[in-house]
UniProtKB/TrEMBL annotation:
Boundaries of every Elp3/MiaA/NifB-like radical SAM core domain copy: 61-288
Example GO molecular function: iron-sulfur cluster binding
One Pfam family recorded for the sequence: Radical_SAM
UniProt keyword annotations, A-Z: Iron, Iron-sulfur, Metal-binding, S-adenosyl-L-methionine
Keyword Endoplasmic reticulum on entry: no
PANTHER family (alphabetical): ENDONUCLEASE/EXONUCLEASE/PHOSPHATASE FAMILY DOMAIN-CONTAINING PROTEIN 1, TYPE II SECRETION SYSTEM PROTEIN K
Protein's recorded name: Biotin synthase
Cofactor: [4Fe-4S] cluster
InterPro entries in alphabetical order: Aldolase_TIM, DNA_rSAM_put, Elp3/MiaA/NifB-like_rSAM, Endo/Exo/Phosphatase_dom_1, rSAM, rSAM_sf, RuvA_2-like
Keyword Iron annotated: yes
Taxonomic lineage from the root: Bacteria, Pseudomonadati, Pseudomonadota, Alphaproteobacteria, Sphingomonadales
């Protein structure tokens, strides 16, 4: 490996990290430099060379890099696989620490997202990642956000050490099915990945209980754990992906499942598809995931929104509208009477809008104009709602309702 400057390493290893989607920094403890030792650095709050968004809309800027893009594994879908012909680089622990501190002082970032290819062994690689986090926390009192990717084959004690320094840990399941993992990443094992996620959940719960009992018990990964699935690298349909996501949420209490659309890589393996799936497919999966976590939809509900033949979610309309169009017998619902849970199933109504409606109808009966003031757009809602001055009659039974509610295709401006 040729001698590279830190700037050259940053160019290579920041670009190599872009394929990992799981870098949102929501859910951790609020913490700033004023609450630390004198001279402490960093914050988990504020506005912010990777941008992620918290559920409340805050923009979080993270230094998102790899320790190294060298790897002893040869996963077919990975640009950093052992057989890939890419330029390699590796940071030292001190180089990453210095970059993080310098970028923070310049107000470029609010935290660090650190992953790595596997070098020497999983344990050795995990030790290097932990040393970065330990140095930042203990030697520099860095109080910003840290997200570490955990290597499932590493010793469980190393994962425990990582949780003492990182706000969030994540272990990628990579692919939705065990068959896909065996075919595209034969050196990885689904059972070991799930076992590592289970161990991590137990550690988070145990340390959480300790914090309730003992005031000075150490914090352990306060922002929980997450994972990522690659979409479109194997033949899994959206139904399979959503079932897998629901299973992971239930078994391992994940904060997030991230979906990353497969992207063709240089010198691709012959077993990979020739082109990437539509990015809109990734977006529909995120919408469905949101519906599972915050809108009370079950996996079975979401399966009913997919195409019966392909198993995929429609791309032209969102999954909530697709579900509603297949359950027209439920609609329209009376905005002044129906339960909150049912209002959450109305296309076009978000959680905030529903809460505003529920609060407002305690004071008076709502008209359609009142609902319009509480939401972003009333056009999609009209066929599905009854208000004190509005009843859609046979609109919900209209044969061209889907066409009328489907957004018109528009050409985006390149330099808008």
């Amino acid at each position: 490996m040729s001698i590279l400057s830190v700037a050259q390493k940053l160019e290579i290893l920041a670009d190599a990290a872009k394929y990992d989607a799981s870098c949102a920094s929501s859910g951790t403890k609020r913490r700033d430099s004023l609450s630390g030792r004198k001279g402490g650095l960093g914050s988990t709050e504020g506005m912010g060379i990777c941008h992620a968004y918290a559920p409340d809309g805050r923009c979080i800027s993270l230094l998102k890099i790899l320790l190294t893009n060298s790897c002893i594994f040869d996963c077919h879908y990975c640009i950093n696989r052992q057989s890939s012909n890419v330029r390699r680089a590796r940071f030292t622990v001190q180089e990453i620490v210095a970059l993080t501190l310098n970028f923070y002082r310049r107000n470029y970032i609010e935290g660090l997202f650190l992953s790595s290819g596997i070098i020497r062994s999983p344990d050795y690689t995990m030790e290097q990642l932990i040393e970065v986090a330990r140095t930042l926390r203990e030697e520099h009192d860095f109080r910003g956000y840290i997200h570490l990717k955990t290597i499932p084959d590493a010793d469980v004690e190393l994962a425990h050490q990582a949780g003492l320094y990182a706000d969030r840990l994540s272990i990628n399941v990579e692919l939705p099915t065990e068959q896909g993992l065996e075919r595209l990443a034969p050196e990885k094992n689904g059972a070991r990945i799930e076992g590592a996620m289970k161990d991590l959940r137990m550690a988070i719960e145990d340390m959480g209980d300790a914090r309730k009992r003992y005031r000075h018990a150490p914090r352990f990964a306060p922002a929980g754990q997450s994972t990522q699935m690659i979409v479109g690298a194997d033949g899994s349909d959206d139904r399979t992906i959503l079932r897998r996501a629901r299973s992971l949420y239930d078994k391992h209490a994940l904060r997030r499942v991230y979906y990353s659309a497969f992207s063709p890589i240089p010198s691709p393996s012959s077993v990979l598809p020739l082109k990437r799936p539509p990015l809109l497919r990734e977006h529909r999966l995120y919408q469905s995931d949101w519906m599972m976590r915050f809108y009370g939809f079950s996996v079975r509900d979401l399966e009913q929104a997919t195409d019966p033949e392909t198993g995929h979610l429609p791309l032209d309309i969102d999954p909530k509208l697709a579900w509603a169009l297949r359950h027209r017998e439920i609609f329209p619902v009376d905005v002044n009477k129906v339960a909150r849970e049912m209002l959450l199933r109305v296309p076009g109504l978000g959680v905030r809008a529903v809460d505003r409606i529920v609060a407002s109808r305690r004071e008076r009966r709502l008209k359609l104009a009142d609902v319009a003031r509480l939401t972003n757009s009333i056009a999609k809602l009209r066929p599905f709602l009854i208000a004190s001055d509005w009843r859609p009659l046979h609109l919900i039974d209209s044969v061209d309702l889907q066409r009328r509610l489907t957004p018109a295709a528009t050409q985006l401006e390149l330099f808008a």
